[in-house]
Amino acid sequence: NNGADSLAVAADGPFTFATALTDGSAYAVTVSSQPAGQTCSVSNGSGTIATANVTNVAVTCVTDVVPTYSVGGNVSGLTGTGLQLQNNGADSLAVAADGPFTFAIELTDGSAYAVTVSSQPTGQNCTVSNGSGTIATADVTNVAVTCVADVVTTHSVGGNVSGLTGPRLIMRNNGKDRLVVYADGPFTFATELSDGSVYAVTVSSQPTGQNCTVSNGSGTI
To answer: N or C: lower Cβ tally within 10 Å for the chain?
Structure first.
């Protein structure tokens, strides 16, 4: 009161300053320190003592409204299903198609964000750019998720022929990939197989006057 008579208030209810004033004195009640997370304002806070106690000063406190900001961006190249994004390892978002996206949970100013792919779509690999940073009094809209088709690594199946004197040995891999061999030496089937595929090399046609057998002819890439 009057910039000098201080009073700490811990809870709702009536208050009275310790220093009484004489008739005709001015009073001016102000908030010198706001409570954490709230803003308090004073009404009927100033006037002149008029032969009576002043009891109608009203201090009203409200919870501060903390602004929050969204985190989002754009997905491009998505053709597969099952893409899942996460922000800060918790806020999950399923994305079904190309276009803008926004996480459900907004963040306060100064908060960190980190967007990651928690589940890749079928047959694709998606990467995130501009995915992490700090909220700076604005929505984040520039997170870019780019999806491309998986690059499937393939491997060849082959080996070596020895002892061949007759013409036209014919081999097959998995009963389909046909290879004609005319002489001893290394061979490789034309069709490569992806990792995890099975292979089975067989002789489908023996050379004239000879019998050829296969060893190490089956397995998994």
So the answer is: C
pLDDT tens-digit profile of 159-171? 999 999 988 999 9
- Residue 63: which residues within 8 A CB-CB, separation 6 or more? 37, 38
pLDDT digits (tens, 9 = 90+) for 106-128: 999 999 999 999 999 999 999 99
Whether the pLDDT of residue 46 is over 90: the answer is yes
Establish how many alpha carbons lie within 13 A of residue 80's alpha carbon, considering only the half-sphere containing its beta carbon: 16
The residues, ordered by sequence, that sit 6+ positions from 156 with a Cβ below 8 Å of its Cβ are 188, 189, 192
Whole-number Å distance between alpha carbons of 176 and 169? 15
- The runs of H, that is alpha helices, within the chain are none
Cα–Cα distance measured from residue 206 to residue 106, given in angstroms and rounded to the nearest whole number: 72
Going by the DSSP 8-state scheme, the letter that residue 20 receives in this structure is: -
